[in-house]
UniProtKB/TrEMBL annotation:
The keyword ATP-binding applies. Residues 13-243 form the ABC transporter domain. Belongs to the ABC transporter superfamily. InterPro entries: AAA+_ATPase, ABC_transporter-like_ATP-bd, ABC_transporter-like_CS, ABC_transpr_MalK-like, ABC_transpr_MalK/UgpC-like, Mo/tungstate-bd_C_term_dom, NA-bd_OB-fold, OB_MalK-like. GO terms for molecular function: ATP binding. Keywords: ATP-binding, Nucleotide-binding, Transport. The keyword Nucleotide-binding applies. This is ABC transporter ATP-binding protein. Pfam families: ABC_tran, OB_MalK. It comes from the Bacteria.
Length: 370
């Protein structure tokens, strides 16, 4: 396989006190983000959270109202897109329909006056890496959606840019193609070692692709960390509720002390907090929200967890390799995700454990992790 590089120009990206406004509407306010050279960063959030706007400002497609964008050691805030040393892949393939795959891949280089031998080599190398060699003489209408998106990625790749930007490039593909192209992007990033910034609303894409994820809401970054940190230790209730499918179970209650031991008093249940790592020791009693992921409800009883209960099962949802059970924790609903091989599809009642080391606690007022 040919070796594609980005010309040894991998650079970090620094977003400093960025503000973006449309008239009186502040879309992004005082946002800071530091991306190391060679990182794969995912901007994750629901529609309207500001992630695509942020990417567009980094690319130079939209102007900042305030703040700065640095790529490497250069302030590019007011540079034209062509002068930022970036490659960009859009949600729509944006291919030239009258050109062949070869023509689409080489177009940008030809417009900048590259020599023929260099262009041909870069196109050949990119086509090899993206498995497009046998398609070089076809036109976009003769390609599948996945092949067209590979061409769009290849067009950015041949530029050998220092930073690659992806704006929801897989959202128009079916589930199988998305899975295949995720794997290719992961492999491509490892091979290139280039800085990549990827926008998506899809949690699976974020968790499988990213070195670090920036979870966004309302034009702000609510948490920036590794997939493991985001999933296991959400820093606020928004992130906890946004990440995970099915979603986290939430319970209102209080953190209290009894015999010098902390516990969570919920609606009809009491959970010892032995093993929970508090971000800051709470001044109890404090109103709090308990979060439990459905897969952290233990149905293979070990006896090691300090909390055990039983519940009637009101519904069973087979999900292939896993099964989602609906039960109750105290007086409130409880979603439980189990391995289908456990044979609980016909269960009417079960016993379960909860390990406090796996739960999350949030301040009821601020929503911050306790």
């Amino acid at each position: 396989m040919s070796k594609v590089t980005n010309g040894g120009r991998t650079k970090g990206v620094s977003v400093r006190n960025l503000n973006v406004s449309y008239g009186a509407v502040n879309v992004i306010r005082d946002l800071n983000l530091e991306i190391e050279p060679g990182e794969f960063i995912v901007l994750l959030g629901a529609s309207g959270c500001g992630k695509s706007t942020l990417l567009s400002v980094i690319a130079g497609l939209r102007d900042a109202s305030g703040g700065q964008i640095w790529i490497g050691d250069e302030n590019v805030t007011w540079h034209e897109p062509k002068d930022r040393d970036i490659g960009m892949v859009f949600q729509s393939y944006a291919l030239y329909p009258q050109m062949t795959v070869r023509g689409n891949l080489s177009f940008g280089l030809r417009m900048t006056g590259g020599d023929k031998a260099t262009i041909e080599k870069r196109v050949a190398d990119a086509a090899d890496v993206l498995q497009l060699t046998h398609l070089l003489d076809r036109k976009p209408r003769q390609l599948s959606g996945g092949q067209r998106q590979r061409v769009a990625i290849g067009r950015a790749l041949v530029r050998q840019a220092s930073v690659f930007l992806f704006d929801e490039p897989l959202s128009n593909l079916d589930a199988k193609l998305r899975t295949e192209l995720r794997a290719e992007l992961k492999r491509l990033h490892k091979q290139l070692g280039a800085t990549m910034i990827f926008v998506t609303h899809d949690q699976i894409e974020a968790l499988t692709l990213a070195d670090r994820i920036a979870v966004m809401e309302g034009g702000a970054i609510r948490q920036f960390g590794t997939p493991k940190e985001i999933y296991r230790h959400p820093q606020n209730r928004f992130v906890a509720g946004f990440i995970g499918s099915p979603g986290m179970n939430f319970y209102d209650g209080e953190v209290r002390s009894s015999r010098k031991a902390l516990h969570f008093a919920g609606n009809g249940f009491d959970l010892p907090l032995t093993g929970y790592e508090f971000a800051t020791e709470p001044v109890e009693p404090i109103e709090a929200v308990l979060g439990i992921r459905p897969e952290h409800v233990g149905t293979r009883l070990t006896g090691a967890a300090p909390f055990r209960a039983a519940t009637q099962i009101s519904s069973v949802e087979p999900m292939g390799a896993e099964t989602l059970l609906s039960g109750r924790l105290g007086d409130d609903p409880l979603a439980i995700r189990v391995d289908s091989l456990q044979g609980l599809d016909e269960a009417t009642s079960i016993e379960f454990e909860i390990d406090a080391a796996l739960v999350s606690l949030f301040d009821a007022g601020s929503g911050k992790r306790l």
